[in-house]
Amino acid sequence: QIYECILSGSFLAAGFVVRQIRDKISAEETMEFCASLLHADVWKIIASTTKLAAIRIGFYEYLIAVVQSAPGVIQEYDMLKRTSKCLLLDGLQEKESGVFNHLWPALLAFCKSCPECWQFVSSPHTTLYPRLFAMLRRTTGMMSSAVTYPSLLPLLMLLPLDVGDPGGIMAFADEFLCALWRGIESDAMIAMAVPAVVEAYLECWKYFALTLPNKALTDPAPLQRHLLEHHFLPACLWFLLGSNLRGPFSHFAETFATAVSRMSGHAIGALIVNSFWAPLFQALLQALATGPAPPPPVPEATPDNPQ
Fold it and tell me: Where in the numbering of this chain does the E3 ubiquitin-protein ligase listerin N-terminal domain appear (predicted)?
C-alpha cells in the first residue's frame, strides 16, 4: 500500500509540476521534462501494477497533463504506440468505478490530440470494439456512469468508422446501442444513473441515425429505417408498456420529434417515418384492449468476450 501511494502521488505531483512550468520554460524543456517520466522503465511499472487503481489514477492524470502541455511527447512513434495500448485497449477493460473519472478525460484528450492513434489498434472489430461493448454492459454504478455516459458521444465522433461500409456501420451501431440498452434494462442499474444512460442512448442514436448518415452515406435510408424499427421502436414500447421508468420517456418523445422533422424532409425519409407508426399504434391499441403484451426485445448483443 505504501508503494502504491508513493507511485500514485509521484505521478499526480509530476502532472501538477507540468501544468505549472509549461508557461515558464521553453516548449523544448517542457517536452524533455515530460518525457523523463515516460521512459521504458515507467511503462514496465505501469504494466506490472494494473491491479492497483491508485497508480492508474495518478498515471492517467499525468498523461492528461502531458497531452495538454507537451503533446509532441506523446506523438513520438514508440510513445504513441504505448499510450494507445494503455488507454484504448487496457483502459476500456477498466472495472474500478473510481478510476473512470480519470480514465475518460485522458482517453478523449489523447484521441483528440493524436488522431493517428487508431492505427496502433490492430483489428478493432476483435480488440477495441468488444472491450467497449463489454464496458457499456457493465457500467451501472453512479460513479462510473456519471462520467462514462457523457463521454460516449465524443468517443463516437472520434472513432475511425469505415463510412465506405454501410453494412459495417449498421453492425457497429447494433452492437453499440444494444450494449448501452443493457444498462437501462439491468437490475443492477441504480435509479440515479438512469437519466444519464437514457440521455447517452438518445445522443448516440441521433448520431447514428441523423448525423453520420447525412455526413457520410450516399443512401442513408437503410440505416435510418433499421435504427428506427430495431432500436427506437422497441425502446419506445419498453418505456410505454414494460417499464416502471415513465419519466425518461419524455426524452424519447422529444428525440423522436426531432428525428421526424429532419427525416421527413425528403420522400424516402417520410416513408421510413410512416413505417414506424403502424406497429406503435398496434401495440398501444392492444394494450388498451387486452393489457400490454411483452415489449419486443432489442437485438441480441454478443457475449462479453473481448480478446
Answer: 3-157
